[in-house]
Design brief:
alpha+beta, Substrate Binding Domain Of Dnak, Chain:A, Domain 2, single chain, seven-stranded antiparallel sheet, SH3 type barrels, cytoskeleton, actin binding, 1686 residues, 15 helices
């Protein structure tokens, strides 16, 4: 089938466009996906290599076993074969990268340029040939017109020549089009062929790989399988050794049990008949199978019990016989009848199988419910997944191993060890989720320690444990901290006590943690590293190459040419690397073995000891030696392993010693790049203020390689590095600097940016950085939060003051915050930190004990003497605190550290009276040691006093344990003995030192005499003393004082269940102790004890309430963030939609005012950039009409001036509406706008029908400097209207697209506003119906008349009104998903200009003016089709039935009272003029309509402030209604007002004295000489053009909707403009002020009756001085200029 040349040309162009717009972008996407494919395969092969390396190590262990040596060989061979397979796969993907990815990248870049040039050349040549042909045709027409005259023969020759020329050019044109189409199609095909050919090659390579892998595995697999089948085979040497051992005699008891068991398990013979089949089994399974036939033979216990064979899972060690039985669940009831060998059961019973083998459909088992045994049909049951474990011969219970003596453990419950199961049956039961009593788990720091084979655990590489018996798998990670004495502690997320790192031999200054390791600075100024142990070892492969050259004498030898590489070198040959030159980086490494040759080359084994051959150095090497192979090399490998796991290892110093020691350290950066694995960034600060960066830290090198200095703008005192690319530091002067340019290729960054301190008067001393947060502590210990921080904007946007005083902060995973309090030196956790609320809600102290805490009583709970001493100690001296409350689990007898008690008859030591009366109560005030790293900052940078001691803090710090004094020997009345430590007995201790950076602790322990109760008060009085450890500087019950905390490796979030904030107490032990002690307690002691407990509770309550006194303020001062993904219409050319990250950040100030910023993050040529705007700068958020995207625009004053808003597109309309609601509420909160609009509000409507209001300021109309129109804020109100009118008493009416009248109810919100953004009452359901129109276009031709076949230059045959967009009945959709069709397509006959009977309008050509009848010159025609759609929404609107309206107006002046009737006029959809009666402020809907007679239909009406009524008829003429007054609301007659010359008016608006009207051509006219005595005026004066609608306010303010604005873009049609300079003496104004736009369709200012302030400026130069310049010179024009400025 032949095509027309135009069709072929279009096919050519579409082919070129397809290649340029579809194929080439598709190739780019294919390249990116291919790279991702490569990365995934590389990660898979790397994981496979590591896995099979572990298999090989297990095989090496098996090689040592005398029985499993062959299996070890099998495992090692397996690992080697799989390693070769992975290497082969890597080589294939190297080829894939080289031959496909790189080639596609090159071809794509070249093809883009080539296709653009080819297409332009084709278009230019086609245009030239087309123009030449058209010129020839034009010349031919001229010749033919001339030849129609008298001398026709004169032009025949020329006409023939022109005909030949045209024919020749047409032939050339057709040939050119055909050749161009062929070439374009071939170009397209070439590209697809290229792509398919490349992937065919790759498929061939992959096929070869699979075949090779199959061959490699098939060669070895049979031998492997043979060695694994017989698991009972034992080597002869081992068998001989076992047989030589003497077999011990069996005890009579065991023999007796075995005989009984054998007799009891001997089943009766099976029934002779085949078992009956259940009905359902017959129906669904013709051949029923046993419930155990699907199970593996490994679980069948290798024989039946009836034959006397033992199950291999049975264990008889230690007198324990544990046998696992299979169980089944019955699905049908069964009765035995008279046969005693059969088993009766009900549906759902559980039966334990005693014989696992099925015999003729029968199974033998024991019913668990009745313990009856018998045969039963196998089809009546199904396998039961939970195994039954029976225990027999429990003569000796099995206990947990413990270091304690056996007599002390006899009260423990026996712990039974489940049998080991090494079967590979997939149907084997899983570990139950609830821990059984046999699986006992002890918790140490929250980490489950399982009994042997009792609990299954796995350890993830980042020190994360998962306990499979705990139900929910919660990862366990650590929080690290250093106290003021330099001791390092860790707190598990599942634990309840601080664990002391006992392997840390030195005191530490600071630590910084990651998930896999922890770094620290010790007192010797060296850096130490603690790598967490994991199942994946840290290994590094060292390699070197041995090179040889061939010569005729020695063949291949070590004699190389002088120009050759080294004999032992690296892979490049440039570095000399002999075997003995390799050294371990530090003592933390060890060699796994000796050097060995790599006998594989590119996945294949090599010949002759691993040599590979080549022609020369360097070249491509092969494993086969050729005749021209002159050089060869082989690779030697050796592995080293990092052995210093879970211990602090010193980082080796580099060759060049650092000039000064480090004072701060911070690690992070693990989220910058995934390669290399385990990559970290370690930053350090020296005492001289220099910053250093540690290079080369990754999984294979956890210590890194060397330190590199980073240039600085000043001296740094502290630094913090986040998990990403955010690094902040504190300068000596208190300023902050931010590292910029950090990325995957530049982990150190490129430059520093300076950020001022949060407080100008007080500098910063500490900074903590996370992923999207920065927290700062200033010199006055105030805490500040930096908002707007992310990788695109590392400097952030502003500071927010937070509640609390801290000495330091640290940011962990998920941006969680820890800090150390300024007053009590306790560790605090910031609660409520989420991804949307980064600042959190409140601080909460972490209240858990230390593992070495001595505040645990050692008295036995069962001892009456200890009970007496316990209460005597508390009543007599308040220094002794209840130890049972602190840790009752340790309230057991301990001879080493327990209380040394006297006999029950022993009396207490009596202290002298003056010792207790004269001693001041606050004598014991030990000074809190101050960390020098903190004092280094605080004393040199801060201007505050040193921190207060714990006793100076009042109730915030717990009291130190006071000790009782020893009386004189004469005062001892009984032979009582007591043991006192040196610190308690009054002998001064040596000064407590921490490390070189810790201040001296001056411990001043004063001896305090405590007078106990007399013997009459307590008959069991004695002395209670505690033995304090010499190495613990804290007193009993005294909380630790912390100096540093690091949560970089602590994986918690706001939903984590932590036990850090309330240390649990063993209530049962406490109750038992109290019960045992209550036998010897007197009422006086009980009363004193209760009084003391009440005082302690009161003090604690006060302390807790003090901690929450700023809670409400902390909630108010917060930051809330919401993020999402959108598309942004970028500002620069070429304009297109690009994917961006959108974030809204809200924050509140100390006064409670709310504000926010929204950010748009995008990448520009791989450079991270962002766009932002403050919420209080946004003037309007408006949905935008877009057929393919859900778009909305954001305006700011600057964007309004540029006529270029920020356009964003959401994925769905629901998401767009959610963002619009959230942004609108945020904008209203920042401006303090709440509730419904005011009575003076300005209302407007967009072309989509959305309703907006703006609250005018008094300065909006002020002269000479009014508020610019682009600074007005518009907020949306729910509902959907086409017209809205209002007045200054709050009466608002609207008209929908279906001409339904609506009245405003006084509410706010509705639509997509939910919750607090919408009022609960006065919101009603609102519906609106509008018609969607499309046009059917046709062209006439002489053959077939009017058809749908138009010219190539014609519009689409089905189009919109403009003809530029194709709109058919099938592809035309409602305006948005909220609209639904309610009718079918019908012909619209109500078109302007009229139609014929079929709805057609005719014209000479497209586009033109159409008429409803056909003439001889009409060659085109069109008709309009319409379809109705319906919208259902909500808003503060109530329907006014039943008359449909087309226009409405309300008297604009303010009423005197709420009962005054307000005149309201309207026009029905048929053109009738109506007057509404009974409209007041209380009843805005009115009561009834009054018809006002007219000679013709009207289309616009308005009423002025003095009741002057003007109207516009449908023919475009103007009318004035006379005698309108409150007594005569309808007036008496109409006065015709002549229209401007040759113009038809369409809209009119009247203010106080001004009358403005708009004609059908968009001209704005002003009526001159309107006075109260002559209200009709005299003449019309032209003001502007390009005006759609006008609104005149009660103060004669003039606002319009302009269709075109100078310098605007696509959104300019429908811009709100304000007339400037309107004054009583100059009512026409001076110029236009452009506001929001476009897309607006209606505006009304008839409710704004705020009188503007009058500003009188003194004259500086006299009367001749020029007028002041306008604020908007660019947008201002002449007094009678156009609104568009043109």
């Amino acid at each position: 089938m032949s095509r027309a040349p135009d069709g072929v040309s279009k096919l050519t162009e579409s082919t070129f466009k397809n290649v340029m717009e579809q194929f080439n972008p598709g190739l780019r996407n294919l390249v990116n996906l291919g790279k991702s494919y490569e990365k995934s395969v590389t990660a898979m092969t790397l994981s496979g290599k590591v896995y099979f390396e572990a298999v090989s190590k297990i095989g090496e262990n098996a090689m040592v076993s005398p029985v499993s040596r062959e299996l070890g060989v099998v495992l090692m061979e397996m690992a080697e074969v799989h390693r070769k397979v992975h290497i082969e796969l890597e080589e294939n993907f190297k080829s894939f990268h080289k031959e496909i990815i790189i080639e596609l990248e090159k071809k794509t870049e070249m093809d883009v340029k080539y296709m653009n040039a080819t297409f332009k050349r084709y278009q230019s040549e086609h245009k030239l040939k087309q123009d030449s042909l058209e010129r020839s045709q034009t010349d031919l027409k001229k010749i033919r017109r001339k030849s129609q005259g008298k001398h026709s023969s004169k032009y025949e020759i020329k006409e023939n020549e022109y005909m030949e020329t045209i024919s020749s050019r047409q032939t050339d044109m057709q040939k050119f089009i055909a050749d161009g189409c062929r070439e374009a199609l071939l170009e397209e095909k070439r590209r697809f062929c290229f792509l398919a050919d490349k992937h065919c090659m790759f498929s061939y390579q992959i096929g070869n790989f699979y075949e090779k892998a199959k061959e490699m595995l098939a060669m070895k697999l049979p031998s492997w399988q043979d060695k694994c089948t017989d698991i009972t085979k034992v080597p002869d040497t081992v068998a001989t050794m076992i047989e030589g051992l003497s077999t011990p005699e069996q005890s009579p008891q065991v023999e007796h049990c075995n005989r009984n068991n054998a007799a009891s398990l001997m089943p009766p013979p099976a029934p002779p008949l085949k078992a009956q089949i259940s009905p359902l089994a017959i129906m669904f399974n013709p051949e029923p199978r046993s419930p155990l036939t699907s199970a593996s033979d490994h679980n069948s216990d290798q024989g039946s019990l009836g034959e006397g064979s033992l199950s291999r899972s049975a264990s008889q060690s230690s007198g324990l016989n544990v046998a696992r039985r299979h169980r089944v669940r019955t699905i049908f009831p069964h009765t035995s009848g008279n046969n005693n060998t059969l088993l009766s059961f009900d549906e759902g019973d559980i039966i334990s199988l005693l014989i696992h083998e099925e015999k003729d459909g029968w199974l033998y088992g024991e019913l668990d419910r009745t313990r009856q045994r018998g045969w039963f049909p196998s089809s009546y049951c199904r396998a039961y997944s939970e195994p039954a474990i029976t225990y027999s011969n429990l003569g000796t219970p099995v206990r947990r191993l413990s270091v304690a003596s056996l007599p002390e453990q006899e009260e423990e419950e026996p712990v039974l060890i489940p049998p080991p199961d090494y079967g590979d049956d997939p149907s084997s039961p899983a570990v139950p989720s609830t821990p059984s009593p046999q699986n006992t788990v002890s918790l140490v720091n929250g980490t489950a320690k399982a009994s042997f084979l009792g609990v299954l655990k796995m350890s993830i590489g980042s020190h994360t444990d998962y306990d499979l018996t705990a139900g929910a798998a919660m990862p366990v990670s650590l929080l690290w901290a250093v106290d003021v004495y330099g001791r390092v502690y860790s707190l598990s997320t599942a634990g309840q006590q601080w664990e002391h790192c006992h392997d840390a031999q030195l005191e530490f200054k600071r630590v910084t943690a990651a998930e896999q390791c922890c770094w620290g600075i010790a007192c010797d100024n060296n850096i130490y590293l603690n790598v967490h142990a994991s199942d994946l070892p840290v290994r590094y492969q060292e390699e070197t190459y041995e090179n040889q050259r061939w010569n005729p004498v020695d063949s291949f030898s070590e004699r190389l040419l002088p120009s050759d590489r080294w004999q032992w070198s690296d892979v490049t040959g440039l570095q000399h690397q002999p075997l003995d030159s390799f050294r371990l980086p530090s003592n933390s490494w060890e060699w796994e073995g000796d050097w060995y040759m790599d006998e594989n080359f590119e996945g294949e084994p090599t010949d002759k000891e691993g040599w590979t051959y080549a022609i020369d150095f360097p070249a491509n090497y092969t494993k086969d030696k050729k005749w021209n192979s002159c050089v060869r090399r082989r690779r030697w490998l050796r592995y080293r392993r990092y052995k210093a796991m879970d211990t602090w290892a010193k980082i080796p110093s580099q060759q060049t010693t650092l000039p000064d020691p480090f004072s701060d350290i911070s690690c992070g950066g693990w989220e910058i790049s995934e390669e290399p694995r385990g990559r970290l960034s370690l930053w350090a600060v020296s005492l001289q203020g220099k910053v250093w960066f540690r290079e080369g830290i990754d999984h294979h090198s956890p210590e890194g390689s060397l330190w590199e200095e980073v240039p600085l703008p000043g001296e740094v005192v502290q630094l913090s590095c986040g998990p990403g690319d955010v690094v902040w530091a504190v300068l000596w002067e208190g300023q902050l600097i931010v590292r910029e340019g950090i990325g995957r290729d530049s982990p150190k960054g490129t430059s520093w940016a300076v950020v001022e301190s949060p407080s100008l008067d007080v500098g910063a001393i500490h900074v903590a950085v996370g992923i999207s947060v920065v927290w700062v502590v200033t010199k006055d210990n105030k805490v500040w939060f930096r908002r707007g921080v992310n990788s695109h904007n590392p400097c952030g946007s502003g500071w927010i003051s937070m509640v609390g005083e801290m000495i330091m902060l640290n940011i962990g995973l998920n941006d969680q915050v820890w800090g150390i309090g300024c007053e009590d030196r306790a560790v605090y956790f910031r609660q409520g930190v989420t991804s949307s609320e980064l600042s959190g809600k409140t601080w909460k102290v972490i209240n858990v004990p230390r593992d070495g805490d001595r505040s645990h009583s050692s008295a036995s709970a069962n001892s009456l003497q200890s009970a007496g001493c316990y209460f005597c100690g508390e009543v007599g001296g308040q220094s002794v605190v209840s130890d049972v409350e602190s840790d009752p689990e340790k309230a057991s007898t301990d001879g080493a550290t327990g209380l040394v008690m006297s006999d029950s008859k022993c009396e207490a030591f009596a202290a002298p009276a003056d010792h207790t009366s004269d001693q001041p109560p606050d004598t014991l005030k030990p000074r809190i040691p101050k960390v020098t790293s903190d004092s280094f900052i605080s004393e040199l940078v801060s201007d505050r006093e040193p921190a207060k001691t714990s006793r100076e803090l009042g109730s915030a710090a717990p009291a130190l344990l006071e000790e009782e004094t020893l009386p004189d020997e004469g005062e001892v009345n009984a032979p009582c003995s007591a043991t006192l430590s040196t610190s308690q007995s009054g002998v001064p201790l040596d000064p407590q030192w921490s490390n070189v950076d810790l201040e001296e602790t001056q411990v001043q322990l004063a001896q305090t005499g405590v007078a106990l109760e007399s013997a009459d008060t307590c008959s069991l009085s004695s002395v209670a003393t505690y033995t304090l450890a010499m190495d613990d500087p804290y007193g009993a019950d005294e909380p630790p004082l912390w100096a540093w905390v690091s949560g970089g490796g602590c994986s918690v979030d706001s939903h984590s269940q932590l036990n850090w904030f309330n240390c649990s107490i063993n209530t049962s032990a406490l109750v038992q102790s109290v019960q045992s002690m209550s036998l010897s307690v007197t009422p006086a002691q009980t009363a004193a004890w209760r009084r003391q407990i009440f005082d302690q509770f009161s003090e604690r309550t006060k302390r807790e309430m003090d901690s929450f006194r700023h809670y409400e303020q902390a909630i108010e001062q917060s930051v809330w963030v919401k993020k999402g993904t959108m598309q942004w219409w970028r500002d620069w050319k070429p304009h297109k939609w690009i994917d961006v990250q959108f974030a809204l950040e809200q924050f509140s100030g100390p006064e409670g005012n709310k504000d926010g910023i929204f950010f748009i993050y995008y990448n520009f040529y791989e450079e991270k950039k962002y766009l932002h705007a403050f919420i209080n700068e946004i003037t309007i958020l408006v949905p935008v009409l877009n057929d393919s995207k859900h778009t909305f625009a954001i305006y700011t004053p600057e964007r309004t001036k540029q006529r270029w808003p920020i356009r964003l597109a959401a994925a769905t309309e629901l998401e767009m509406r959610d963002w619009l609601a959230l942004l609108s509420v945020s904008c209203c909160d920042s401006r303090g706008l709440q509730g419904p609009p005011s009575k003076q509000a300005i209302w407007s409507i967009t072309c989509k029908g959305d309703i907006f209001v703006s609250e005018p300021s008094p300065a909006l109309e002020a002269m000479p400097y009014p508020t610019p129109c682009d600074q007005m804020f518009w907020r949306q109100v729910g509902g959907h209207l086409r017209v809205v009118e209002c007045n200054s008493v709050g009466i608002v009416w609207g008209i929908g697209y279906d001409h339904t009248a609506w009245v405003y109810t006084g509410g706010y919100g509705g639509g997509f506003f939910q919750g607090l953004a919408s009022s609960t009452d006065n919101i009603h359901t609102q519906t609106d119906i509008k018609s969607v129109y499309i046009y059917e276009n046709q062209r006439w031709n002489p053959v077939s008349g009017y058809t749908n076949r138009g010219l190539p230059t014609d519009r689409y045959m089905w189009s919109d009104a403009s003809g530029l967009h194709e709109c058919t009945k099938t592809n035309t959709k409602p305006p948005s998903p909220q609209w639904t069709w309610v009718s079918d397509w019908v012909i619209d006959y109500s078109v302007s200009g009229g139609t014929d009977r079929e709805g057609w309008q005719f014209a000479a050509d497209f586009p033109a003016s159409y008429h409803g009848y056909k003439t001889m010159k009409d060659f085109v025609r069109r008709r309009r089709w319409g379809r109705k759609c319906k919208l259902t929404t909500t808003g503060p609107w109530q329907e006014i039935p039943p008359i449909p309206l087309s226009d409405v107006t309300i008297l604009p002046h303010a009423a005197q009272s709420s009962v005054d009737v307000v005149p309201l006029w309207a026009i029905s959809n048929k053109g009738d003029v109506l007057c509404r009666l009974g409209v007041t402020a209380l009843t805005p809907a009115g009561s009834s309509w009054l018809h006002v007679g007219t000679d013709q239909p009207f289309k616009s009406i308005t009423i002025g402030a003095t009741s002057q009524v003007w109207g516009i008829a449908k023919d475009g003429s103007a009318f004035y209604r006379g005698s309108v007054s409150p007594q005569s609301p309808a007036g008496d007659c109409w006065y015709h007002i002549p229209s401007p010359a040759k113009q038809k008016l369409k809209h009119v608006s009247v203010g106080r004295t001004s009358v403005y009207t708009v004609d059908e051509n968009g001209n704005l006219w002003y009526r001159q000489d309107v006075t109260p005595s002559y209200p009709q005026g005299s003449s019309w004066e032209h003001i502007s053009n390009n005006v759609r609608k006008v609104s005149v306010g009660p103060l004669d303010q003039v606002w319009i909707i302009a269709d075109k604005v100078q310098g605007s873009h696509s959104l300019s049609c429908g811009t709100v403009c304000h007339r400037l300079g309107v004054q009583p003496m100059e009512p026409k104004g001076q110029s236009w002020d452009y506001g929001i736009g476009g897309g607006w369709d209606h505006v009304t200012v008839r409710g704004n009756s705020l009188e503007p302030p009058r500003i009188h400026l003194p004259s500086l130069t006299g009367p001749s001085s020029p007028a002041p310049r306008s604020l908007l010179p660019v947008r201002s024009g002449e007094a009678n200029g156009n609104a568009a400025g043109c």
